What does this fold into?
Amino acid sequence: LVQRGILEERGAGFRLHDVARPMFASEIADHDRDRWERQVAQAFCDAADLDLVVEAVRLWAKLQDIDQLVSTLNARCEDLVRGGHEAEIWTIVEPIGDGRVERWRLRLAVDVADVSHLLSFSQPADRSAEAQTTWARALFLTARFYEAADAARGAVDAALREGATEWAVEATLVRSQALGYAGLLVEALAALDVVCPAPPSAAIRFDALRAQWLCLTGDFRGAAELVRTLPKRSIAADDDVRLEVVQGMVFVLYGLGRMREAADVVRRVFRGRHESAAARFRSRLTLGWLALTAVFTGELDEARQMIARLEPFARAFSVQTPFVRALELCY
It folds into this structure.
């Protein structure tokens, strides 16, 4: 089939040639296309290749099999998000109005920070720590900081009752961020002591955020001391945690006037991969800081390119809108 041009070799697999595809599609249509697609989706659900899992989600949505769709999301959505596929899954589930998918619609809208859709969500009836933390994030991303802080405090309490340390950490970070963005810096610092002692994996994230609030309160020595310890502590962390750490470091270095050092830190993280950075919210935050350092180090063409990538995410008012508008004024 490869020699005859019907199949094309692609990595470890094969792809039906575009010219041959219509002939085979009509053959499948004459039989039970749904049955074949269902078998493919079932086979892909447990695949190690996350691209295949994305295809399984797409097929379940196409087949309108909500039970299988939800089952696949329950089993694999965390893997997909960690693998950077949240934007693809969001485009699949966003149009689905079935309430059984709402948990994942909210979660994915938060992960991709789709503010235009986040504004349409209501507080979930689910009172679990996971659901309430996700809701608090939604409020924070849409710049409803006081509401976000209150919701996050409820999520922290729920997580502590459930013994869900992971969600207690996430809710604590959201609460501190919301309070800090609302200008309540003392409260933002105090919020980081609720989960005490913090697990080692969370302590570095707390300290990266704590350094920012210390800098804003004028404790430059305390902020600089924390920042000094962060690079070595983040070596074993995953990509998302490293981005959080970088954001804290760059914030403080910028506040201390160490612009070149701030630019070097953030560039080492991206290593030139700016094109895909706008796809993920945490990457967008860091990309914003890189644009700011480029402005102040005189690299205006590079700054314009990065700001152009952020612009689509600042059209509806969000936590990033003032930052992007300020960048535009700077250059």
